[in-house]
């Protein structure tokens, strides 16, 4: 924008609060960047993390997230901050970093934008004639050419923020770092330079320099704005330089279906996000474009462009994850076999110990038999009697029954253990469920929207 519980399945990401009532609020522990990237990838198609940007002044780095809390009673799932450009704000960068640590500890992801001053002038500047300015093609060519004075000046500019980003690394805080944003726009000095020697080249230099400084906590967010010129891929620095592909929606309130598809095409298997917008996402956007992993509402637009009811509607939407509803903890390898126990102290059981494909999987009194001996597979399967726990017909609808079937590597046989103790099938986004919490022997298991009910809590073999 132009202004300033149970044993866990081996190697599988824990996720909480998906497609239903969220798990109880939890703080985020020190984590790696890959945990955040994996998490964002895992929720695509099912959930989206709420976000709020906090622009200058640096002396009030949580002012807009507090406004969200005042309106909705909850904090955003993502806190957005700014590395700053005005002299008085650059002098207060530490306040921004301190706020980022607090937000992470409270259960929010951390994102940082940087409206950086041009390397053709000083370290601090005003927005107009500093960030929002033009430089010549020759000056830009020098910035992206190793060994020139302007290239060196750019690296010294990056050096200024390294100590602050290192603090976040030391604290175990991964940062969704979005440098050189809106690369396809004309308002900024780095913008509207397509092709391999344009903005993409400067992004690559920035990435390599900061990675070379040991900043392994940076999640590299590449960003364009939804302007009608299109051809956004011509600004893309390449898959090895980008972790998240993002779009700012300013030419229109929400990304169009064409915008959505263009970003998805560029991203491939990478998570995608709406990094800036001025209008709170509505149900049509959240359901019609479900792969967005997070959105970030821009600072003053929270109140200036949205009614309190619109803000509350977005934060209360069942797809939206707010502060404390995220669980990034990785799975811990726990090979072993034994019972899977659930509600009423009963066990997941293969009916009649049969091995035919399609045999019902049910709840039954625990008896230590082979029909209740499940092996946690390193491939995210659960196996008994030589076959796999399977969602019938690869179904994704609420109420689809669970069966035993030959192991085949399909999504119907993959299971994730969440921090709330659920077993989630990522293909459907739904959880292993006992209908209505019925503890009678022979109750057939199903998948259902993940929720906090006791009949979705399972203890795996250790």
The biggest sheet, with number of strands, parallel, antiparallel or mixed sense and barrel status, is: 8 strands, parallel
Please name the CATH topology of the largest domain: TIM Barrel
Average pLDDT, to the nearest integer? 91
Q: What's the N-to-C terminus distance?
A: 51 Å
Structural class per helix/strand content? alpha/beta
Number of strands: 22
Shape: elongated
**Proportion of residues in extended strands:** 15-25%
| Order of strands across the main sheet | 2-3-4-5-6-7-8-9
Spatial extent as radius of gyration: 24 Å
Q: How many helix segments?
A: 12
Uncertain runs are: 2-25
User: Into how many domains do the coordinates divide?
Assistant: 2
CATH homologous superfamily identity of the largest domain: Glycosidases
Can you identify the CATH class of the largest domain?
Alpha Beta
What's the architecture of the largest domain, going by CATH?
Answer: Alpha-Beta Barrel
The quaternary structure here is: single chain
Into which percent range does the helicity of residues fall?
Answer: 10-25%
Please give a handful of descriptors for the protein shown.
alpha/beta; TIM Barrel; 462 residues; eight-stranded parallel beta sheet; 2 domains; 12 helices; elongated; Trefoil (Acidic Fibroblast Growth Factor, subunit A); eight-stranded antiparallel beta sheet; single chain
């Amino acid at each position: 924008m132009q202004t300033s519980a149970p044993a866990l399945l081996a190697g599988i990401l824990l996720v909480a609060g998906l497609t239903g009532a969220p798990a109880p609020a939890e703080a985020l522990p020190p984590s790696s960047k890959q945990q955040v990237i994996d998490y964002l990838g895992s929720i695509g198609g099912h959930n989206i993390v709420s976000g709020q940007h906090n622009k200058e002044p640096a002396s009030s780095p949580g002012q807009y997230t507090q406004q969200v809390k005042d309106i909705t009673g909850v904090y955003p799932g993502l806190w957005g901050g700014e590395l700053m450009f005005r002299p008085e704000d650059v002098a207060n960068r530490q306040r921004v970093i301190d706020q980022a640590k607090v937000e992470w500890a409270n259960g929010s992801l951390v994102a940082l934008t940087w409206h950086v001053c041009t390397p053709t002038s000083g370290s601090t500047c005003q927005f107009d004639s500093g960030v929002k300015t033009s430089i010549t093609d020759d000056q830009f060519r020098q910035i992206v050419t190793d060994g020139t004075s302007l290239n060196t000046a750019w690296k010294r500019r990056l050096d200024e923020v390294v100590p602050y980003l290192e603090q976040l690394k030391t604290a175990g805080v991964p940062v969704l770092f979005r440098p050189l944003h809106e690369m396809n726009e004309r308002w900024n000095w780095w913008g509207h330079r397509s092709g391999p020697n344009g903005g993409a080249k400067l992004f690559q230099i920035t990435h390599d320099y900061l990675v070379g400084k040991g900043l392994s906590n940076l999640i590299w967010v590449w960003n364009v704005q939804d302007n009608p010129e299109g051809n956004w891929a011509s600004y893309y620095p390449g898959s090895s330089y980008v972790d998240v592909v993002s779009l700012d929606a300013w030419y229109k309130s929400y990304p169009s279906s064409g915008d959505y598809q263009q970003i998805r095409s560029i991203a491939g298997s990478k998570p995608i996000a709406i990094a800036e917008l001025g209008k709170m996402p509505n149900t049509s956007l959240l359901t019609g474009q479900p792969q967005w992993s997070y959105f970030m509402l821009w600072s003053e637009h929270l109140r200036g462009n949205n009614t309190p009811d619109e803000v509350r509607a977005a934060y209360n939407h069942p797809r939206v994850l707010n502060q404390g509803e995220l669980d990034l903890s990785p799975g811990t390898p726990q090979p072993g076999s034994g019972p899977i126990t659930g509600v009423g102290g009963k066990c997941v059981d293969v009916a009649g110990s049969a091995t035919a494909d399609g045999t019902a999987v049910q709840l039954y009194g625990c008896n230590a038999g082979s029909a209740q001996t499940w092996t946690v597979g390193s491939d995210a399967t659960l196996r008994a009697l030589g076959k796999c726990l399977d969602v019938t017909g690869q179904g994704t609808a609420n109420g689809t029954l669970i069966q035993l079937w030959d192991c085949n590597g399909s999504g119907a046989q993959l299971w994730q253990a969440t921090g709330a103790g659920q077993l989630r099938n990522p293909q459907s986004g739904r959880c292993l469920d006992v209908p209505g919490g019925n503890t009678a022997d022979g109750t057939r298991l199903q998948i259902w929207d993940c929720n906090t009910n006791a009949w979705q809590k399972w203890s795996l073999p250790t």
